[in-house]
Write a structure and sequence with these properties.
This protein is of the alpha/beta class. It has twelve helices and eight strands. Bound molecules: NADP nicotinamide-adenine-dinucleotide phosphate. The site of NADP nicotinamide-adenine-dinucleotide phosphate has 24 residues, from helix 4.
């Protein structure tokens, strides 16, 4: 395995990936673009990370992560010379594999994955297409690398990441409501955060229909959970959620052609 890993783009998603790799592979050299001065200065305080021009990164690294905005990639990548043996991993949401392939030639067979900022701590699901032994080697020990069956499965996974913010909103509403009624905002938040993370942590780590099973377990006739879920269902909330996901999916499909 190579000793040098490169990052084109040193932005919000590159930083936690760089931190994770730096922590777990202290003997590897990590080269990052000399951009986003604040972030690249921060990551250069890590022992094995340094910033370099994009072309130098490509000359030194057998594995290269592309962490650019798609429109920037369209402008920047054609000016760079890739190596045919390079392994390219893109994290870009709105560009197809076909287009990435045309931008990185003579390198070939790029893969796309979807890291999230908590990859720094581990436990991040990493959908990828096509299969990438390189991604598995670099991140699979701490994160769940899920190989997808086709490129068409990438946009709905990007869409599904958008559930995080609305889930946080829902938890925030409950925490505030609890704080108002029980007298302490801080304890309200503490209770709700531990309630949900404890419940998720105790669920089986793999298998089918785990959410359905959990809902059944929480569906005692006349029980509190049952009553609140029915109330929210009747409001049309879950239908709205599905419609929102459909809308995001359409947007991402258009962007990736
Ligand atoms: N953020 C997430 O949670 C997340 C999750 C999954 C996937 N993604 C995908 O990751 C990609 C990057 O997203 P982001 O949120 O990290 O965006 P970002 O914070 O804006 O990062 C983009 C990076 O590209 C750099 N850049 C611009 N022009 C460049 C050039 N000529 N050479 C080298 N670097 C250049 C920017 O530097 P300057 O600041 O100096 O312009 C910045 O460091 C997107 O395609 C997005 O879809 C993001």
């Amino acid at each position: 395995m190579t000793q040098s890993i490169g990052f084109l783009g040193t932005g919000r998603i590159a930083e936690p990936m760089i931190r994770s790799l730096s922590r777990r592979f202290p003997n590897f050299t990590i080269l990052v673009s000399t951009r986003s001065h604040e972030i690249s200065s921060r990551v250069q305080t890590l022992n094995n990370v340094s910033a370099s021009p994009n072309q130098y990164i490509l000359e030194q690294c057998e594995i290269v992560f592309i962490c650019l905005l798609a429109d920037v990639a369209r402008k920047v990548l054609p000016q760079l010379m890739f190596e045919s043996a390079q392994k390219i991993i893109s994290v870009m949401a709105d560009i197809s594999l076909e287009e990435i392939s045309s931008l990185i030639a003579p390198a070939s067979n790029p893969c796309v994955t979807i890291p999230l900022p908590f990859i720094e701590q581990g436990g991040c699901p990493l959908p990828v297409y096509p299969e990438s032994p390189t991604l598995e080697t670099l991140f699979g020990d701490e994160n769940d690398v899920i190989t997808l069956s086709s490129e068409n499965a990438i946009p709905p996974h990007f869409a599904a990441t958008a559930i995080l913010s609305s889930s946080m909103k829902q938890l925030d509403v409950v925490a505030h409501w609890l704080g108002e009624h029980a007298g302490s905002q801080r304890d309200g938040e503490r209770y709700v955060a531990n309630l949900v993370s404890g419940y998720l942590g105790a669920m089986p780590k793999d298998g089918a229909d785990r959410f359905k099973q959990a809902m059944q377990d929480l569906s005692t006739e006349g029980g509190l959970n049952n009553q609140l879920r029915q109330h929210i269902t009747e409001s049309g909330h879950y239908e709205t959620l599905r419609n929102g996901l459909d809308e995001l999916h359409r947007r991402l499909k258009v962007a990736t052609g």
